[in-house]
Design brief:
It is built from four helices and no strands. It has helices at 3-6, 9-30, 39-49, 54-65. Helix 3 runs antiparallel to helix 4 (54-65).
Length: 75
């Protein structure tokens, strides 16, 4: 057996691991990450992945920008 286990060092190792885990948990609770979803960014990603075509992209981009023709104009 190593000196660590013979002399009760395993308890010290376990305590150190416990302190590190507690510190990581505390930091993640104090400083949570926030994901900001940007509609334009989602639209860009969908175009890049090929989920939508360029025409659809331009139409949705215009709607986001508020420059799309209104529904009343089509009647």
């Amino acid at each position: 057996m190593s000196w660590c286990l013979r002399e009760g060092g395993w308890l010290m190792v376990a305590a150190t691991i416990l302190v590190v885990v507690a510190a990581v948990w505390a930091v993640t609770r104090l400083f949570p990450t926030s994901v900001v979803v940007d509609a334009a960014g989602v639209l860009d990603a969908r175009l890049a992945r090929g989920e939508i075509d360029v025409e659809t992209y331009r139409r949705l981009r215009a709607e986001l920008a508020g420059t799309a023709p209104s529904v009343e104009a089509h009647r």
